[in-house]
Amino acid sequence: MRTARLLFLAAALTAVVALPGMASADPGGSKVLDDQLTGLPSDMTGQTLFGVTAGGIAWRLDSGSARLFADGRLQVSVHGLVLAAGGAEGTNPIPNAQAIVTCAGVPAASSSVVPYSADGDAQINETVSLPDHCLAPAVFFAGVPAPGVARWFAVSGW
After folding, report:
1. How many CB atoms sit inside 10 A of residue 16's CB?
2. Which end of the chain has fewer beta carbons closer than 10 Å to its terminal beta carbon, N or C?
């Protein structure tokens, strides 16, 4: 009986000590995606991937990343995401962009539209509404040339 009581006390103390550490190590939900982005290659232009249509010309990217958390927090950063070909090569002619999250190969959430500089820089840091389970998430960075129209220029998981 004394051994059982000691084991229970030891387990209870372990839980009291460990739980605050777990909560502080994982505030707001676990990370479900932490990946680099890749610019749109020329062989994917105009194609649809996971229900998201690609831009009509290749894009290159100096650096880009996407992080998605189980609670819907989404952090996307692109630097130097510009046209890789054509007369406007090296520039970004689209002033607005958004992130699109897919789960199990289907669009599941979109960020709000954010400014996207002529140098190809943009930041997204907001919370999106995800389904209860987001299997195989991917994040697309999409230019928004007109309201309601989005074309991806960079994607995670490539």
Report:
1. 9
2. N
Residues 139 and 78 sit within 8 Å (Cβ to Cβ) = no
CA distance 32 to 138: 10
Q: What are the residues whose beta carbons fall under 8 Å from the beta carbon of 28, sequence distance 6 or more?
A: 69, 71, 73
Contacts of 38 (CB under 8 A, 6+ apart): 61, 64, 154, 155, 156, 158
* Per-residue CA distances from 58 to 17, 41, 99, 139 (Å): 53, 5, 18, 18
Beta bridge partner(s), residue 114 = 97
Cβ-contact 68, 31 below 8 angstroms = yes
Tell me the C-alpha to C-alpha distance, in Å, between residue 112 and each of 16, 26, 135: 40, 25, 22
Neighbouring CB atoms inside 10 A of 40's CB total: 29
Predicted model pTM: 0.82
Phi/psi at 22 (nearest 5 deg)? -65, -40
Q: Which two tokens stand for residue 155?
A: 């994607």
